[in-house]
Each structure stands twice: as structure tokens, then as C-alpha cells.
């Protein structure tokens, strides 16, 4: 167990993996333009998911936008394929220190699976799609940098399962969160029965899944489904949280995420050993020396991710 975990840390630190396919990097439609974005805002009607790398004061933050308004961001084959391309694009990007996942569709984050498209599939195609969906969400969960879901509107079924794969979740005032699959005589099939209990405990997760109850932002905050709520849109709240993370040592943040994620799934002794292995990866970094130097000189450190 320890040897396997140590190998995971070394691979994560080295970034060893096949060369990824890169999705097109776009800028956001004008209504969602950020002050720090240096290029003109251009909508791309052909893509249902794309990424935007912020610049200026927000350098280090990347936005992954979902944009399928005709179906309320329901997860179709096309949206899922483009979503996975976006994950490929950021996975090995050392410039991305935080990824924010948000919707460009009014009053919805993600409505879950595209049931109209699924109705046209035979059982074999359904199984293949659900397997691809699970793989995509696992890829989101396994990204090395912190991820934040900015939830405005409905995050139901697969939409909430997607958000649960992010490290942190911020809910806007109109957010609706739930796993209502039992109302359709099915169960959450993309990780909901596993990730939700690990987040809020088995009993409360069973209650939500058995009843199909939809939570308000206040309800979700009270039981720990989200870590923050926002008075207006969730996106500014998610960006504010991202801005708190970006200045920290990027290698340290990635190693801390890995230590928490993997350590929480094993016994305490194995988790402590894994933490020690992660800690060993930050010792030889230039950033660690910069942190010590900046502390001695009473200035803000400038971390380079080296």
C-alpha cells in the first residue's frame, strides 16, 4: 500500500504522462467578461464546453465554461466529449493554479444526463455513455490543481455529481442541488452514491438519495454539500476563493490536495506515511526557499512553481 501511494506521489510531482490533446482555448461571451481577460470576448456557438485562461491580476485562474443553452447543459455525447477535451487541456498546464467550473446558461449549472438523447440509445450504448461519464468525472476529481464549482441554478443528478468531483463548491442564491434519480426509478450512476456519503456522511446522503430531495443553498451549506454561498452569482464568489489560493506555493497546494485525497481513503498510519511522501516533494523546490527568504525579508513571496 505505502509503495503504491509513494509511486502515485512521484508520478504526480514529475508530471509523467502521455502528451494530452488540447481543447481550443476561448474567451467568454461579453456578458461574462472578466476585467483581467486580455483578449476580446468572443462567443463560440459551435462548442458546448471550453476553457478561458485569465490574465493580469487573475493570472493562474482558468475557467471551464459549460454552454449548451438549448438543453440546460444536459450531458450529451458532444458536451461530454468537449468537457473531457477541456480537462486534457488543463491537466498538464503548470500555469493553471485553480480551475473554476461554471455555466453560461441562465438559471442552470447542469441539468444532469440528456434523457432525450438517452431515450434513443440501446442498453449497450447507455452502458458505454455512463462509463464515459464516470471516467470524465474521475478525471475532473483527479486534476492536480484545486477545482471550484460555481453553482448558479440547478445542479441536479449528474450536474451535482459533476460538482461533487470538484474540491470546493460555491452556490449562488438560485442554486438547486439534489440527486433525484430515484424519482425516475434509477440511482445516481456517476459517483453520487459514493462521493456524497464521503462528503456529508452515509445517513444524510441516504436521506437525500432515497427522497430525491432538492436542496436550497442554505440547506446545502448547513450539511456541507457546499463550502460557501454567494449573495449574487456564484462566479464572483468562486473567483474570490480562487484568488486566495493562487498566491500560495503551487507545488505545495498540489501536494496538499493529493495528500488529503489519497490519505482520506486509507487508514491513519498509511495516510501519515503518504503525507510524509508528499512533504518530501516540496523540500527540494525553489519555492520553499523563496518562502523562507520572503519571510525573513518581510515581503510577499513570488512563487514560480519550481
Automatic annotation (TrEMBL):
This is Enoyl-CoA hydratase/isomerase. Keywords: Lyase. One of its GO terms (biological process) is fatty acid beta-oxidation. It comes from the Eukaryota. InterPro entries: ClpP/crotonase-like_dom_sf, Enoyl-CoA_hyd/isom_CS, Enoyl-CoA_hydra/iso, Enoyl-CoA_hydra_C. Belongs to the enoyl-CoA hydratase/isomerase family. SUPFAM superfamilies: ClpP/crotonase.
Amino acid at each position: 500500500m505505502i509503495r503504491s501511494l509513494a509511486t502515485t506521489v512521484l508520478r504526480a510531482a514529475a508530471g509523467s504522462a502521455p502528451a494530452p490533446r488540447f481543447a481550443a482555448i476561448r474567451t467568454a461571451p461579453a456578458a461574462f467578461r472578466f476585467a483581467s481577460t486580455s483578449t476580446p470576448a468572443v462567443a463560440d456557438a459551435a462548442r458546448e464546453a471550453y476553457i478561458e485562461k485569465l490574465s493580469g491580476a487573475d493570472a493562474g485562474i482558468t475557467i471551464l465554461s459549460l454552454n449548451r443553452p438549448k438543453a440546460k447543459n444536459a450531458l450529451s455525447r458532444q458536451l461530454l466529449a468537449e468537457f473531457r477535451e477541456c480537462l486534457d487541456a488543463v491537466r498538464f498546464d503548470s500555469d493553471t493554479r485553480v480551475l473554476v467550473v461554471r455555466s453560461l446558461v441562465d438559471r442552470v449549472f447542469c441539468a444532469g444526463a440528456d434523457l432525450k438523447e438517452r431515450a434513443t440509445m440501446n442498453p449497450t450504448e447507455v452502458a458505454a455513455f455512463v462509463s464515459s461519464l464516470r471516467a470524465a468525472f474521475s478525471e475532473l476529481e483527479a486534476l492536480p490543481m484545486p477545482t471550484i464549482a460555481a453553482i448558479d441554478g440547478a445542479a441536479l443528478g449528474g450536474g451535482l455529481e459533476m460538482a461533487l468531483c470538484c474540491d470546493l463548491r460555491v452556490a449562488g442564491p438560485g442554486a438547486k442541488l439534489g440527486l433525484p434519480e430515484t424519482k425516475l426509478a434509477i440511482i445516481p450512476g456517476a459517483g453520487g452514491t459514493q462521493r456524497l456519503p464521503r462528503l456529508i456522511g452515509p445517513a444524510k446522503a441516504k436521506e437525500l438519495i432515497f427522497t430525491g430531495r432538492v436542496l436550497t443553498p442554505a440547506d446545502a451549506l448547513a450539511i456541507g454539500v457546499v463550502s460557501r454561498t454567494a449573495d449574487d452569482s456564484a462566479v464572483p464568489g468562486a473567483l474570490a476563493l480562487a484568488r486566495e489560493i493562487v498566491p500560495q506555493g503551487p507545488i505545495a497546494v498540489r501536494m496538499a490536495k493529493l495528500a488529503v485525497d489519497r490519505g482520506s481513503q486509507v487508514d491513519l498510519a498509511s495516510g501519515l506515511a503518504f503525507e510524509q511522501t508528499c512533504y518530501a516533494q516540496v523540500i527540494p523546490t525553489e519555492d520553499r526557499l523563496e518562502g523562507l527568504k520572503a519571510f525573513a525579508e518581510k515581503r510577499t513571496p513570488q512563487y514560480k512553481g519550481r
